[in-house]
Amino acid sequence: MLSLPSRLRDDAALWYINREPHTGKAGRPKKYLGKVDIDCLDRKVFHEMDYDIDNGKCFGGQVYSKARKTGTTLFFDAIS
After folding, report:
1. What share of the chain is helix, strand, coil (3-state, %, to 5)?
2. Dihedral sign, CA of 70, 33, 49, 56?
3. Is-above-0.85 flag for pTM?
4. Cα–Cα nearest to 38, from 62, 55, 14, 19
5. 20/30 Cα distance (integer angstroms)
6. What CA–CA distance (Å, rounded) separates 52 from 64?
7. How many other C-beta atoms lie within 10 A of the C-beta of residue 35?
8. Sign of the C-alpha dihedral, residues 41, 43, 44, 46?
9. Which of 15, 21, 38, 43 makes a 20 to 30 Å CA pair with 1?
10. What sections of the chain are H helices per DSSP?
């Protein structure tokens, strides 16, 4: 079960930030890779953090918030 305590709305527009190197092709590279689905998070973006309370796991990662117009660090915990 995932728990995401936040001040964001349930329908907040969050996007994965493109961290891939430039391909060398003509044109501007993509800024975002896709929309964040809270029910199915991409584990490649989020890394496990040191968290030793109640035998849980905490994950964090950078995403882009459309409403705030800036990058945001998003944290969530997976309760076992």
Report:
1. 0, 40, 60
2. positive
3. no
4. 14
5. 9
6. 28
7. 12
8. positive
9. 15
10. none
